[in-house]
Amino acid sequence: MKSSKNLVKLYKLMNREATMIEFKRRIILFFITFFTISFLFGNSSSSFSKPIIPFGFCPKYNPRIMYQLYQPFIDYLNEMTPYQFEIKLSRVYQDIIDRIGKGEISIASCGPVSYIKARERYRVIPILRSLSRDGKPYYRGIIIVRQESPFQKITDLKGTRFAFGQAWSTAGHILPEYYLLKANIRLKDLKAYDFLRHHDSVVSAVLKGQFDAGAVKDIIAYKYQHQGLRFIFLTEPIPTVPIIVRQDAPKEMVQSVKTSLLDLNPENPAHRTKMAQWDEEFKYGFTEASDSDYDSIRHILRVVEKEHGAKGPIRE
Prior knowledge:
Number of domains: 2
CATH architecture of the largest domain: 3-Layer(aba) Sandwich
Order of helices and strands: HEHEHEHEEEEHEHEHEEEHHEH
Shape: globular
Low-confidence stretches: 33-47
Largest sheet: 6 strands, mixed
CATH superfamily of the largest domain: Periplasmic binding protein-like II
Number of helices: 10
Strand content: 15-25%
Strand order of the largest sheet: 2-1-3-12-4-13
CATH topology of the largest domain: D-Maltodextrin-Binding Protein, domain 2
Distance between the termini: 99 Å
Number of strands: 13
Structural class: alpha/beta
Mean pLDDT: 87
């Protein structure tokens, strides 16, 4: 009987020791795994992390659509360059320009008028401009009405309700006001007018009958044409949207972006697939840009600003 009790005690002791050994083994394994993972991932993040570069975009569309159309473009740059670009949006065009001036953003995509205003205030340069579907670096502004509208041409718009885009929008405001002036129609000659936030907002307001006519860029007009729009005026071709940088932006970053985008060829099936989800404005490739490309817009902007005259500079 005593022998049996001793055997039970011995068994319990051995079992306790085995449990302790297993516990220690697991503790050691845990720390080995922890330090191995820390070493691998710690070194990886410090060795392979990319510099973060904010990429500004003027608010052509509402924020949801902006992210939907431009995040794939940013993903491409992140894949092809040693940088981690991040989208930065704003409520108004002027905000992106001011953030460039403050150094918060060193690269951005804004319309021709926004670039010219930025150039007047800060040290910025255009590095690229986008190509349109026909492979040329030009686009048009279009004045739209509803399909059943009685208005047939721009000279019919005196006394109507007109929807502009934002004040610094090239196709949404500066171009249409310039061509209205050429048709001898000033803002005071309109029954009513307003500056809406986005191009798609202008389309919506015209289709709903809130305005008789409105102004948008060509890619937006064609996108919504089947919903009941009619075009009564197309502007002369104007230079496409530039990608601009601060003059003190890192040269390596600028060259990396230029190389990645200039290498794209929409005739290449692989490239075309990659660009398929990009905004219509970017999906046909890019070409080099220079400041003089936008001289024609400077002339148009000066005419409109002169018209505003005593009311002061054009503001958002």
